[in-house]
Design brief:
The complex is a heterodimer. By secondary structure, chain A is of the alpha/beta class. Chain A is about 40% helix and about 20% strand. Chain A has a 6-stranded mixed beta sheet with strand order 10-9-8-11-12-13, with helices on both faces. In chain A, strands 2-5 form a two-stranded antiparallel ribbon. The chains are: A alpha/beta, B alpha/beta. Strand 4 of chain A pairs antiparallel with strand 5 of chain B, so a sheet runs across the interface.
Chain lengths: ~425, ~525
Amino acid sequence: MNSLIDRRLNGRNKSAANRERFMQRYKAQIRQAVQGMIRNRSIRDMDRGGDVELPARDISEPSFQHGSGGDREIVVPGNREFARGDTIDRPRQGQGSGSGEPGQGEGVDAFTFTLSRAEFLNVLFDDLALPHLIRTDLGDVTQRKWQRAGYTTTGSPSTLSVTRTLKSSLARRMAFGMSARGEIETIEADLATARRDEADAETIQALEHALERCHRRLSTIPFLDDLDLRYRNRVAVPVPMARAVMFCLMDVSGSMDERKKDLAKRFFTLLYLFLSRKYEHVDLVFIRHTDDAQEVDEETFFHDPKSGGTIVMSALELMHQIVQARYPPASWNVYAAQASDGDSFGADAVKSARFLADKLLPATRYFAYIEVPDAREARKTSLWSEYEHKAQAHFAMRRIHDASEIFAVFHDLFKKEPA
Amino acid sequence: MTALLSSRDPSSRSVPLSDGPEWTFDLLQTYDDAIGAIALDFGLDTYPNQIEVITSEQMLDAYASSGLPIGYPHWSYGKAFIQNERAYRRGMQGLAYEIVINSNPCISYLMEENPMMMQALVIAHACYGHNSFFKGNYLFRQWTDADGVLDYLVFARQFVLSCEQRHGHEAVEAVLDACHALAHHGVDRYKRPAPPSLKLEHARQSEREEHARRQYNDLWRTVPRQDAPVVHGETAGHFPVEPEENLLYFIEKYSPRLAPWQKELVRIVRKISQYFYPQSQTKVMNEGWATFWHYTILNRMHERGLVTDGFMLGFLQSHTSVVAQRGFDERGYGGINPYALGFAMMRDIRRMCEAPTDEDRRWFPDLVGAPWNPTLDFAMRNFKDESFISQYLSPRLIREFRFFAVADHEANDKMRVAAIHDDAGYRDVRRMLAAQYNRENQVPDVQVVRFNRDGDRSLVLRHQRTRQRPLDGDQADQVLKHLARLWGFRVCLEDIDASGAVMASRAQEGGAPLPGAIF
């Protein structure tokens, strides 16, 4: 018997597993292609997929096949002008002689396929993991959430559950009054019989007394007892922190030209991409500074020119204030990236380094300092050498000269901790 | 094209089943019933149908696994999927209208976005055309087990998955890769005799004894005996006694190194390859048969007034684009279109039965005047592409297709036109076209000739050149590498010509065994 089945709701992605296998097998080649894409692509577009080309030779599936040479005849349709005995030049290798058997894969040089955004980012961040994840490990939890967990018999009056309390009160009263009410029923019946039968007054009185006793017994059952009280129970359950805030600090004084800003921006973007894959929610705070610091929006941060001197300290102080006011480290994962060309005046560098080490580093999960010097061979700046003294495990500093170096630096900064 | 549109029988007063492109499940059922009834009138014998409606994504999935509904995971299917998906998304390739699986019940897929007309076409084409071919053709009857194939696929998938669990997916992949390289050589073309049962052995044994007893004559004892009997085969160091063309079978049975689970994987690839073998040998016939029947059935529906004229025009447009054959020098030429050739031949056989010309009388005296339906049925049951073409291709079709044969011989610097569609050439063109569908011309003839069982366990393969055609060297080296990994010891491939002289020889050392193999 014929049957008609609607399969449209069945899984659509039956081939996803096989696609995954394919990607795994050619991981090395794909990774190489992704590296190339990163180099060539503006970071603004980083967050999407891309085409990967693999050499067809690498992924061919060999089988025994006839090579060229030997004798054969090919029958072809569509003759217009040929007669028996005509001669035709041999087509060039690999082009036409296979006209009788199409689709044998000739002339295919490269196998191209498209990586989705998620796959692209996966490859991009393949080897990277957040540094020092100890604190976010589920075992060590800094945040708790209260959750309802039934009812208890003790608690503070504010958590009293009236409904529950009255329910148990009602139950208690019903249970305690059971025998009294039963007696009342029988006595009332007896009384009624006695009255109808016009029994003697003594019997009736005795019955009435008994009845009254029972009623008294009933009325001594209290409406509400301590036993009845029920309180809503709440327990604290640990929740992992899924929030992060990322501070972008940048020196926007005159010496920071567009090229340097661009480099800084690329680094910030990459860090942001990375964090947004690790945390459900990432806040961004942009702090720019010249001789004083301001919190600004992204557009202003990167594009609004400002002139003035350079006091790094101001930005660090502002960041500290913002962290204290809005992002307590107990409930936020704080990350910070600072970009500067390293210019600073007088005691600023020393003070900044000390402030960083004493106040900011304890509060942050990670602090990266990126220096974009004028030239590759520029000497170490004062800020750099001061910062160097304060080196800590979760503080990293690097110098970047060129866009192509960013990923390498980033990779290095966040490389997987050896297990 | 006017001749294609059948004239409606004025006496039929049926109401069309539907009008417009929309389809519903009820409507599909109605059409299927109507088409089934007509197919039955024509005497098509089919498995029960299981028609499944799927989306285009699911169709792409089905493509990747060669149309099998259940497959084991392997990266090459992922690769095929990526290729198809890309081509489809870019509009370089449309999706097939239909995929049909040779199973019982016969599963066919309808695509959700097709209009009613197309669904009807696919039902007629796949559910009655291909289906009856699967059930009737001798190759399918001989080599595929429609009842068991789905169960086997489920088993194969489970087995591969469980092997991956136990041995890791790299180990499984290594075996499958190697087997896939040899998949074309995992096919039996002739049935092996079933091993005799114990009972039969006993019967034969007693028969032999009885025979010996009756023939006993003491005189034989006095005949001088040859001292050292010449024994061919194993003891002379020659094993196998006869060359074996099913390489995967040989590996499965005799591999000195493969663990049982690896042999089972080899067997799975071999079985699935064997399942596809009839399909590769009957492409023209199978498609021609299905196309002929969708054409015939839908025209009958139109005659009976079950479908509208608009439906028919839409149908004819799809049909003609399916059976279009471009000339070799036209844009978009992709070889001989099996739909076009097959359909033309089926129609031609019918024409020769019903309205033969003088030429047909000379060429096909047997067909002239025979009832067309049984004649076609006979052709469908008993031929494969090669024999079908050499039996039934008529001069008229050779002219219509303007076939000509080009000889590409190594000795000449230029190719020569060997035959064209004229009196002198019909037979040659037909012979050469048939040869083009011969398996020998598609898959090189590689066989196991020697397994040095008692020595270094090396394996010798022999490629018998057909008409001096050599193997593609690069590919052969790659395949040998796979084979050597599978075999675990030295593997040697000799290229020999018709006279038996070794033209070329390549070898591959066993090297590191596959992960999980026996040492």
